[in-house]
Amino acid sequence: MKKIIYLLAIMPALFFASCNKYLDILPKGKKIPQTYADFEALLRDEATVHQVPIPQAIILPNDRFVSPANLNYYKLWDINYNWKEQEDRKIYNNSDESTYYYAYSSISVCNLILEHGPTMTEATAQQRDELMATASVLRAISYYTLANYYAADYDSQTAGQLLSVPLIESADIGAPSKQVTIAEIYDYMINDIKSALPKLPNQGQTILHPGKGAAYALLSRIYLQMDNYQDALENSEKALEYNDKLYDWTAYYNANKSQIEEPANYALKKTPMDFAYVENYYFRHGQSPNFTASELSLQVERAAGFEKGDSKFASRWKLRTVVPNTYYTSTMTGFYNTQGLTTVEVYLIAAECQARRGNIQKAMDFVNKVRKTRILAANYTDLTAQNATDAIKKIQQLKQNELIHSIIPFADYKRLNKESAFATTLRKTIDGKVVQLSPTSHLWIMPFPLGATENPGNGSIKQNVEK
Amino acid sequence: MKGVTLPLYVIDGFPVDNTSMDFNGNVVENLPDLNLEDIASITVLKDAAAASIYGARAANGVVIIVTKKGKNKGTEINVSATLTHNPYYFNTDRLASSADMIGIEREWAQQNPNLKTMTPAQAQSTLDDMSYRSLGIRTILKKYAGQLNESEMNAELDRLSQQGYRYYDDVANYAKRSPFSQQYNLNLSSGTEKSKFYFSTTYKKDLLEDRFSKNQNLGINLRNITQINKWLEVEMSSFLNYADDDRQTYDALAPGFSFLPYNQLKNSDGRNYTAYMADYMSQATIKSINQYGLNTLDITPLDEIKNNIEQSSGFSNRSFIKLNAKITDWLSYSTSFQYEISNKKLELLYGKNSYYTRSRVNQFALIADGKATMMMPNGNINKTTDLKNNAFNFRQQINIDKDFGEKHSLNAILGSEIKNNRMRSQLQNLYNFDPDALTYTMLDPKIGTVGSFNQKYDNASQYESINRFVSFYGNVGYAYSKKYLFTGSLRWDRSNLWGTSSKYQNKPIWSVGAGWNLSEENFIQLDWLNQLKLRTSYGIGGNILQNVAPFMTAYYNTNSHVGGTQGTVSDRPNPSLSWEKTTTTNVGMDFGLFRNRISGSLDYYRKQGKDLFASTMGVPTEGFGYSTYAINNGQMTNHGLELTLNANILQNKDFSWNSSLLYAYNKNKVTYVNVKAPFYILQLDYPDAYPRIGNPYEAIYAYKWAGLDQQGIPQVYDENGNKTTQTPTTLESIVYAGTKVPTHTLSWTNSLSYKNFDFSMMITYEGGHKIRNADLPYMGIGNYLTFTTLAPMNKDIRNRWQQEGDELKTDIPRLVFPEETTLYNSASGTVYQYADLNVLDARNVQIRNISLAYRLPADWVKKMRLAQARLQFNAENVAMFTKSSNAKYMLGGYRTPNYVFGAYLTF
């Protein structure tokens, strides 16, 4: 009997001793990121890092077909598609949160890597530097999209005063953010990329990891947006040193000729513009990474803007009538690099910079180099230009087509709308009435989504556009 | 506000979790496995002390089940059999009929502006594109395409309109059945002075509504209590359960093509109906299926129901050993150990020829260079899921029960508990599986770039979770001369769960209570008063959020596009999170009157929650605009009254009548919140996340209905009180429309016995709450399609607005087809759906149970060498009465009763 009482007395003491050990286990299937491998994996997550849709930037210049029913349903789409300047888009932009939400999601993961990079374990100095540099470049790509989508174009006259988008540098709950000026956000992007460059590998680990080529391509894109043609040209040349390949669309066309040329064949082909596309510097989705999908349809009028014999166009879209609508429907399926960086963009940046310097021939050589891989031999002749203005217009026509559904057509419209020689007034006829979108329209700046302005966290957000 | 929802089950002193992990790693709570015939008693604990004995898990109440122990002396055998029949019923009365739908389709033809200018070629191409799927519209288009003339078209439309509810009738006749269950039970108990033994076995077989779904179950229970010597008693128990289930995966009510009441499942010649590709797919798609040699996608629903039956088998065991040591006559020590294990295996062979496999394989056809490559081989898909759990529970307890002198008595328990619970799940898919040779084909990793291939669901995944708890608890009761009672309890928990590292982990939960036996007092000695006791308790309980970490956590899986491992941040460190605290106060009274002919209790309670957990929207600029995270948001009070009343109204030799009443009133009010919905739609869709001060927590919010406008378009009031046909986007325009939880509940049971007959009936009432009507007479909520797609809808569409002036008579909006682009208002669906017009009074009266039992007369029983024999008939869920038929439908009131026949014999 006494033994039992002793035992009773001892047992609780034993519990206390072993209690902490017994409870000190971590759940499985989840972990606290600590090592290099743990953090590196975060940058491979396409859903949170590598997808930034830009729906309204595609709808505004009418770079896609939208059915009347969709216009009826999505009021915001209708305002942007039909240029209804009197409407207040702020009220309706619940149907467009994606650009803001996804871009900042990507920025948050990059911030996390940059915050925890210095303390992560099982990393060589080189791995650590490389991963942090990669995150800096990815963050800059997101800021570029945000700054062009939600704020005015970069103009050295006003960039120091006009506000751009919130800048946030931490991934913590309650992290402070500050809405900075356009000049500040561009400086920030350039500094980030420049300091990352020496630590970047020539080629990233995968196409989701920007390497040196991608960083130079992004720098040249940013400098062009700032009308800094000298730096844009230099960086485009450096980018092409890392990758200058162009995909031979004419060969693709010929291999799939019977299917492409058969009018009623709407079977979907797997797109070559995916992760393995030779023109890629860096891959970023504009649609969900979870589901293969078709490309957006085109208006008949927009399709007419493509050159005759353009095999890239013919491989991707085909005329279709589904009564009462007629449009060009996509014949591709898969994942598309619409929001990343590709060689064709860099070629065309280089071409414009050369034209700006007066090197018309050099500019048109770049244009024709691209066209040779796109235009079928039967339709191909070299394109020439009379002067710089003519050359830039021809470069733009090609660039608008080549980079359709990326942020570039929208950003280029805004950039060139500042120059009277290139400013474009878009026009179309609705129900017999001509409507137009002027180069100075406020519609070129998208309002921030209500979800963001009403729930700004530790910072404040001011709309850059009134309605 | 968050967390587990089931009450805690305590069986024979052990908390039984019976949680399992499903194939995607979510924890599922199940009711414990138990032979129902073994239950000796069930008690429900709700007061503050419950939590301090059983821990935070007791927040949703504790159900204490005591099972049968075996007889003290002699042997007893019980045998019973029950059969349950539930007639199949699908409520077509609420649905628009074939005639209604054809009427709508004819109206479509009149209203559609496109049809006025449509050429035969355009009509043909519209048919070929499968822009419209419903038979009525397709018949009309065939006339426009020149395939039918006017009278042929009308004849076909008339034929369709006469089909009534054919599709549902065919489903009832050929695809479903009336569920039928059988259950057989045998139990044996015997005992001597030293030992008690109990054995029971139950076999159950349920044929479910789907013809190929059934469950079989065998439970075996063994229990023994042995008095080893004067002071030591050993109790051992083991419960085994075998389950074998079939689940049909194809449902004829979701057949893979769209249907309306006039569609069919059986042809008039008696053959099974086949939806050929041309019946539901566009010509262009069919052409490419044929051209590239893909699988044809014809669907024969009545053949498909036999395919892809998921077979599962399970085994579980729960065993315990308990030692009770009597140290002195007032002090005893008990220790017990329980081990639970359960394994379940689910196996689903998707047959090569089933519609599921055919269409799945087509989704991964890579078309390039003019030909198709099948990335997923054209063969059977074998999907297996393994679920494994084990748990142990070790308890020690010291019990004190001592009287000091004549007037003082003390009882106390002091104990500790260690718990461990481990759950695992494992899923695997094998493609091109040969069930005979047991061979399969590896998939090309590039499959992820061709179709939507989810590595976790479509390839393989594993999940595991371990929960460990260590707890200490104590409970003291003191009574002075049986009149004055005092109680106190204290509990301290620690666990390995994420939130445990927080400083709030070590807070104990406690309660105190007092009671006064008034009927023991000399000054209240009344003839008619047998018992009167007043009692009160006060306690503080707390909760920590189990899955929120003070660290950053991420989950990982395989990237199927570029390779390697990809990680996603699931939680960020949440420094502002603290303890959720609930204070419970309870005052009550127990009474017995007129020689306890009338007895009952009356309770008032008040629960005050502080720093309650709730979800809030992430900050978009922080990159979490699409996520929610937990915060301590707000305070709320619950107070209520509970009354139980039991009356033996009549009692004489042949006839007795007992009536018992249970009434509860509960009022819930949010007294403080610090978060408002960031966006109007969230207030409507997630009201629990954004409660408003002064309203109940589980509330329904809605727009204020403003009737139809002159054109029959639905309107609501905006924040300024103006009528609008657009969706108001401010929080001010959204008003409180009622609580989802009943404020008054009542249950009334009457039992009558006459000689050998027992009759009882239970009636319940719920009131004071609301329910949102989701069964609307409206065509496609949120419809943004170019083309009218019709789906079955509520029959009140008959009373819709048809002409100007109808807005004074009806609240049912006019039909507007998407093709009528000038009139079509995409906001109408949202406006109508969220209007308070569609928040229904959910008050209801139900006849839950009627039972009639017949005890065979003693002399017959004796002749049959039985101790007792009883026949019983029950009807469950007999009827429901509500204010409106819509409310009855939303509350699930349209169903047929379960009829249960049982025979119970005791030897």
TrEMBL record, chain A:
Keyword Oxidoreductase: no
Keyword match Protease: no
Record domain SusD-like N-terminal: where: 21-224
PROSITE patterns: PROKAR_LIPOPROTEIN, TPR
Keywords: TPR repeat
Ranges of the TPR repeats in the UniProt entry: 213-246
InterPro entries, sorted: SusD-like_N, TPR-like_helical_dom_sf, TPR_rpt
Protein name: Putative outer membrane starch-binding protein
Record organism: Sphingobacterium detergens
Lineage, top ranks: Bacteria, Pseudomonadati, Bacteroidota, Sphingobacteriia, Sphingobacteriales
